[in-house]
Automatic annotation (TrEMBL), chain A:
Transmembrane helix listed as a keyword: no
Family annotation (InterPro entries): Carb-bd_sugar_hydrolysis-dom, NosD_copper_fam, NosD_dom, Para_beta_helix_rpt-2, PbH1, Pectin_lyas_fold, Pectin_lyase_fold/virulence, SCF-Subunits/Alg-Epimerases
Keywords, in A-Z order: Repeat, Signal, Ubl conjugation pathway
Domain of life: Bacteria
Protein name as annotated: Nitrous oxide reductase family maturation protein NosD
Organism lineage: Bacteria, Pseudomonadati, Bacteroidota, Flavobacteriia, Flavobacteriales
Source organism of the structure: Gillisia hiemivivida
Pfam families noted in UniProt: NosD (PF05048)
Start and end residues of each Carbohydrate-binding/sugar hydrolysis domain: 50-189, 200-356
This protein's pathway: Protein modification; protein ubiquitination
TrEMBL record, chain B:
Keyword Transmembrane carried by entry: yes
Keywords, comma-separated and alphabetical: Membrane, Transmembrane, Transmembrane helix
Pfam families the record matches: ABC2_membrane_5
Entry annotated with the keyword Transmembrane: yes
Domain of life: Bacteria
Transmembrane domains' residue ranges: 20-36, 42-67, 88-112, 124-148, 160-181, 201-219, 231-252
Species whose genome carries this gene: Gillisia hiemivivida
Upper lineage: Bacteria, Pseudomonadati, Bacteroidota, Flavobacteriia, Flavobacteriales
InterPro entries reported for this sequence: ABC2_memb-like
Protein name: ABC transporter permease subunit
Length: 414, 260
């Protein structure tokens, strides 16, 4: 009985979509020569097929539920005159278009595709080039942004836009996109319950991913590489960050991940490789860090202060110049059962756990925090000597900041 | 002078110590490459060794050679040879043989590893150049100390102290003054303080060439701006040359007036 009811619902849905919905075609020799014209003439729930060719159009406004499908990569060239497509209706699908030359303006944020106050949108397989903003979602919910390729040519931060921007959105899925050379790869502001997965955001001018005031969001399996500063997550709660790779964010003001005012979040199974600073933490509470790999970073984790009740467990700290940097003498965070490649202790009872605790904060990193200029003494013999004496008897670094159970072998994360 | 240089040089080449020194660097190079499998990492580790060990061995070896060859020097002084050429010849002989042990000892394993096909070639050659400079500087300083002190024990003591000061104490004072004056702009001060100590200068020169320089942050940017230009590089090379020339000049003057 249950099966039957499901079946009938699906059948009904199928029937309902096919019952209304005519097909319109746009090409040089078709009835409709331009997309704008086809959109105007189309009835709700129609499908517009855009054939191969270049269309010089901008300000295409979609105010009814439509499906626009590009066949053989049609190109819409905005000639730098303004916004290309604006969606102001529910149930709109845009698929397979290439959009180039979006206008640049300092007063209006022109986007290749903008979705305003709409639901159930689907934007997929789009190729956006030479753009200001790429995909701009404004107060729109329950939509999907899938498998788009966004390639910008941003040079200056002030004169460039973001790849995918979400503003006051809810329950949107952003998956499988490739974003390069824009200002911020993906930018979220006041957007909740967003799933960001399998994206590659690299070579961007500022951040690969930028969060502001957005809660209950998840991002998994993304790659963030070679971005100007890395990934910034700020003023947000209940964020889950899993299986992401942060690498080669290398520069004097770069970091892999910046956490500022992040509470109750989870960071696990990520890889931080060759970043100047792996994670820069500021004012974050109740965040758990588990099963992450920190490899060849300058600083693996820089704790800037006002961070309480954080737990670092089962992470691998491999060959970082500094494992942890701390700027206060009070510690309320727990380090437990991590592997530290700089650990020099022994394991007499052979249980795989070192018998003496590991102190991840070196005196030098404490000094550098106080007086940044002293970094010029990096790798000097004197520094090694004071680091050693501090290790033997801690005076300046918080004496309860230690890993009581350092592991002797790197953890295999499964 | 050339004859004495040649004599000192071959005398040292035959001695056990320069073989030990040469073999030490050979072994170090091989082990580092074998363990690391990464050229640029090996260069970093090597830098740590070079800026500490090269000055130490330069000073100790210089003082030792001077005191050991004292009788021979006295014999030479009885001959119609210019005084300055005796001491300068000895000094150059010692430093050339030490520098050669360093360059060849480290060069061989890296050449076999394929340094010529690697991008680390410039870092590596900078490393060898600064290493050679440090050898010349500290051997010269050692000769000055040895010439000034008849007493062997005192001479060795001063030599060790000199090394300790340059490699460790100077950085300690540097660090203290940076921390004490942390409220003031310190860019120029730290630049000058670095320039004045050849050990620090070599360390910073090599660090700035490596990836690790990004760690230096803002201070690093100031240094990069200075040393990254040709002007900065020339200034720092000039500084190193000056560090060789001044002690050599002192040796020259002391040799002229010294009583035996």
């Amino acid at each position: 009985m249950k099966h039957l009811s499901y079946f009938s619902i699906i059948l009904l849905l199928l029937l309902s979509t096919s019952s209304y919905g005519n097909d319109l075609e746009v090409c040089k020799s078709c009835t409709y020569k331009s997309i704008k014209e086809a959109v105007e003439k189309a009835a709700p729930f129609d499908t517009i097929y855009v054939k191969e060719g270049t269309y010089y159009e901008f300000n295409i406004e979609i105010t009814k539920p439509l499906t626009i499908i590009g066949e053989n990569n049609p190109i819409i060239d905005g000639k730098n005159k303004g916004e290309i497509i604006t969606i102001q209706a529910d149930n709109v699908t845009i698929d397979g278009l290439t959009i180039v030359n979006v206008g640049t303006s300092y007063t209006t944020d022109f986007a290749a595709v903008r979705v305003v106050k709409s639901e159930n949108f689907l934007l997929q397989n789009l190729k956006l080039q030479k753009l200001f903003f790429g995909i701009y979602l404004e107060k729109s919910n329950n939509g999907k942004v899938l498998n788009n390729t966004i390639t910008g040519d941003a040079v200056h931060e002030y004169s460039s836009g973001n790849g995918i921007q979400l503003w006051y959105c809810r329950n949107v899925e952003v998956r499988g996109n490739t974003i390069k050379k824009v200002r911020d790869g993906i930018y979220l502001e006041f957007s909740d319950e967003i799933l960001i997965s399998d994206n590659n955001s690299s070579g961007n001018l500022r951040y690969g991913l930028h969060f502001m005031f957005s809660n209950h969001d998840t991002y998994i399996n993304n790659v963030f590489a070679n971005n100007g500063a890395g990934v910034a997550v700020m003023f947000s709660k209940f964020i889950i960050m899993k299986n992401n790779t942060f690498k080669k964010n290398w520069g004097s003001a770069s970091f892999g991940l910046l956490l500022k005012e992040i509470n109750d979040s989870e960071i696990s199974h990520n890889t931080f490789e060759e970043n100047t600073v792996g994670i820069n933490v500021e004012g974050s509470n109740r965040v758990t860090y588990t099963h992450n790999d920190f490899k060849n970073n300058g600083w693996a984790i820089k704790v800037r202060g006002a961070c309480y009740f954080n737990v670092f467990e089962k992470n691998n700290f491999l060959y970082n110049s500094f494992d942890i940097s701390y700027n206060s003498r009070i510690n309320d965070n727990k380090f437990h059962g991590n592997y530290w490649s700089n650990y020099t202790g022994y394991d007499l009872d052979k249980d795989g756990i070192g018998d003496i605790p590991y102190r991840p904060v070196k005196l030098f990193s404490y000094i550098v925090n106080r007086t940044p200029e002293t970094i010029i003494l990096l790798r000097s013999l004197f520094i090694d000597i004071i680091d050693f004496s501090e290790k033997v008897s801690p005076v300046f670094t918080p004496d309860n900041l230690l890993d009581e159970n350092p592991l002797l072998k790197p953890i295999r994360h499964d | 002078m050339l004859k004495i240089l040649k004599y000192s040089f071959f005398d040292l080449m035959r001695s056990r110590w320069s073989y030990v020194y040469f073999l030490f660097y050979l072994l170090l190079g091989v082990v580092l490459l074998f363990l690391n499998n990464d050229l640029s990492k090996a260069v970093i580790t090597l830098m740590n060794v070079i800026i500490i060990l090269v000055p130490l061995i330069g000073t100790i070896f210089g003082v030792m050679y001077y005191y050991n060859s004292r009788e021979f020097t006295e014999l030479l002084l009885a001959q119609p040879v210019k005084r300055s050429s005796i001491f300068l010849g000895q000094y150059l002989g010692v430093s050339f043989s030490l520098a050669m042990s360093l360059v060849i000892g480290l060069g061989i394993p890296f050449i076999f590893y394929g340094i010529f096909n690697s991008s680390a070639i410039w870092d590596f050659s900078l490393l060898l150049i600064t290493g050679a400079f440090l050898t010349f500087i500290f051997t010269a300083l050692a000769f000055v100390i040895a010439l000034a002190n008849e007493n062997k024990i005192k001479g060795f003591g001063y030599a060790i102290l000199l090394w300790l000061f340059m490699a460790v104490i100077y950085d300690g004072l540097f660090l203290m003054s940076l921390m004490y004056f942390e409220n003031y702009p310190l860019d120029k001060f730290s630049l000058i303080a670095t320039m004045l100590n050849p050990v620090d200068l070599s360390r910073v020169l090599i660090l700035l060439k490596l990836d690790i320089s990004a760690l230096l942050g803002y201070t690093g940017a100031v240094f990069q701006k200075f040393f990254g230009t040709n002007f900065g590089l020339i200034i720092s090379l000039a500084m190193l040359i000056l560090w060789v020339l001044i002690p050599t000049g002192i040796i020259y003057r002391m040799a002229k007036t010294k009583d035996f």
